[in-house]
UniProtKB/TrEMBL annotation:
The keyword Hydrolase does not apply. It is an enzyme of class 2 (transferase). Belongs to the PI3/PI4-kinase family. Residues 89-110 are annotated as: Disordered. This is Serine/threonine-protein kinase TOR. It comes from the Eukaryota. Gene3D superfamilies: Leucine-rich Repeat Variant. InterPro entries: ARM-like (IPR011989), ARM-type_fold (IPR016024), DDR_Repair_Kinase (IPR050517), mTOR_dom (IPR024585). PANTHER family: ATAXIA TELANGIECTASIA MUTATED ATM -RELATED (PTHR11139), SERINE_THREONINE-PROTEIN KINASE MTOR (PTHR11139:SF9). Its EC number is 2.7.11.1. The lineage of its organism: Eukaryota, Viridiplantae, Streptophyta, Embryophyta, Tracheophyta. Keywords: ATP-binding, Kinase, Nucleotide-binding, Serine/threonine-protein kinase, Transferase. Residues 42-135 form the Serine/threonine-protein kinase mTOR domain. Coiled coil: none annotated.
Amino acid sequence: MRQYIPELMPLIVEALLDGAAVSKREIAVATLGQVVQSTGYVITPYNEYPQLLGLLLKLLNGELVWSTRREVLKVLGIMGALDPHLHKRNQKALPGPHGEVSRPACDSSQQIQSMDEYPMDLWPSFASSDDHYST
């Protein structure tokens, strides 16, 4: 399924942008949640489609039925937390409030894909420290 994401995501985003068809947007939200959950395609959609977060938040505040709002919240939770600095940079790449961006706003080769790419000394420490527990 992951290999089809580049073909699916533009269709899903386009359906989310369709203000005339409420049912189309509701199905797009549910589809986005299922695609993200089944493929583990998290956080990256925000970077590749900078308008996506704003779209989802507008749907959340819009006049949709509560079941759709609940689905939007679920999708936001599944997709994960976004780095605010990266989001701000992505927003600058948008030509308008919901403009189309033909290329990713950031270079995905510079993104860290797993904790293994961090040096060990930068990993968060969950062990006790002598600084916190003096003897």
